[in-house]
Design a protein that fits this description.
It contains seven helices and no strands. α2 packs parallel to α7. The protein is mostly helical. It is globular. 86% of the residues lie in helices and 0% in strands.
């Protein structure tokens, strides 16, 4: 029988990784476009809450659609419960949102806050890459570089989009 942590690890990683990519990208774009920490905080908190609920609902429906449990799995409780999977996905997403927003609560300079947020992204990715390495024997360097490249690429593209929006908004 698998441990509960092993059963729902995929749900946690789904919520966490999606939040890292989406929220760091949103923060990068809004930081340059708006340059106002209060507006950025409110915007990302609301969108982060909505996204965490959306992810939880999607994970619930996805797990329900995938699950075809045998009688033995149900008796041994060796199956993935859609409600629990939903909870783990949603809560890991929302906690990640809060961690990434923390610098914007503490620092007034939005660029320093973004820098701190990106460092948090790297630390979280390193932690989960190390966990994956210890648990599954995955290649730490490969996993870390893969996750970092995806997350930071989205942040850079969003930062550029924020810059373009800022330029064009001055013409309107």
């Amino acid at each position: 029988m698998r441990k509960r942590s092993e059963t729902y690890l995929g749900s946690v990683v789904l919520g966490l990784n999606d939040a890292l990519i989406e929220v760091s990208g949103t923060l990068a774009g809004l930081t340059l476009a708006l340059q106002n920490s209060k507006i950025i905080l409110i915007s990302v908190f609301i969108s982060g809450l909505a996204a965490s609920l959306s992810m939880a609902g999607s994970e619930y429906l996805s797990t329900k659609a995938e699950c075809h449990h045998t009688k033995k799995e149900i008796e041994n409780k060796n199956h993935k419960n859609a409600g629990a999977a939903s909870f783990y996905t949603g809560i890991s997403y929302f906690l990640t949102v809060l961690i990434l927003l923390l610098p914007y609560l503490i620092l007034e300079n939005v660029y320093y806050a973004l820098y701190w947020t990106l460092i948090d992204v790297i630390i979280i990715i390193a932690f989960f890459s190390y966990y994956s390495y210890k648990r599954n024997g995955d290649n730490f360097s490969y996993k870390f570089l893969e996750m970092s490249t995806i997350s930071l690429s989205v942040a850079v593209i969003s930062f550029i989009a924020g810059y373009v929006i800022k330029i064009f908004s001055n013409f309107i």
